[in-house]
Amino acid sequence: MRLSLRLLLTAVLIALCGSVSLTASAADTRRAIVNAANGEVGQQETPPGSNCNPYGPCEPWCAHFATWTWRQAGIDIPNYGFTGDIYSWGQRKGRAHSGNSGMQPGDIVLYGTGPQNTDTSVHTGVVVAVGTDGRITTVEGNSNNQVSKYGPFDPKHARSAGRPANIYGWVAAQ
């Protein structure tokens, strides 16, 4: 009986320690994404208006920036140029969410009406803060030819808060 109890306690401790380290790892990943995004605020295109940027080729680059922040934190995501591809990647990985609530710092939000094409998925940003009231702050690449910070704003009314469209979905960092 004593041996069984000892084995049970050992198994419980291993399980608890394993979940604690996973939680710490997820928090560390989110913190690394937020730090990477915040550290780039003010980074401009060179030359201005050219779409030439340090995150990818000389083309619209909000998605390049968002995926760059994730790669800085060790997430194996391709350097996507199209925002809808981020959502599709998230679907394949079980991380995509439709709607405009529930995101956490480090997640990527997607603006428009859906991931189908550049007319429906128009922009993206990295969530760097979520208030107790659910309002979010984002850092977004290729916004006024630079990396810019927006918010806090209500994600349910992103367009009325000055964002290019409402949020149709988001992809979880973890």
Question: What is the mean predicted local confidence, pLDDT?
Answer: 90
Number of helices: 3
Strand runs, count: 6
Radius of gyration: 19 Å
Largest sheet: 6 strands, antiparallel
**Helical percentage:** 25-40%
Class based on secondary structure composition and strand pairing: alpha+beta
Q: Approximately what portion of the residues adopt beta-strand conformation?
A: 15-25%
Q: How is the largest sheet built, in terms of strand order? A: 1-6-2-3-4-5
Query: Which series of helices and strands comes N to C?
Result: HHHEEEEEE
Q: Uncertain segments of ≥5 residues (pLDDT<50)?
A: 5-14, 19-23
Question: What's the structural blueprint in terms of helices and strands?
Answer:
Elements: H1 2-39, H2 62-72, H3 83-93, E1 96-98, E2 108-112, E3 121-130, E4 136-143, E5 146-153, E6 167-171
Antiparallel strand pairs: 1-6, 2-3, 2-6, 3-4, 4-5
Helix pairs in contact: 1-2
What does this structure look like?
With 174 residues, the protein is α+β, with helices and mostly antiparallel strands. It is 34% helix and 22% strand. A hairpin with a 5-residue loop joins β3 and β4. The model is unreliable at 5-14 and 19-23 (pLDDT under 50).
In short:
This protein is α+β, with helices and mostly antiparallel strands. Helices cover 34% and strands 22% of the residues. A six-stranded antiparallel sheet has the order 1-6-2-3-4-5.
Which terms summarize this structure?
6 strands; about 20% strand; 3 helices; about 170 residues; 6-stranded antiparallel β-sheet; globular; alpha+beta
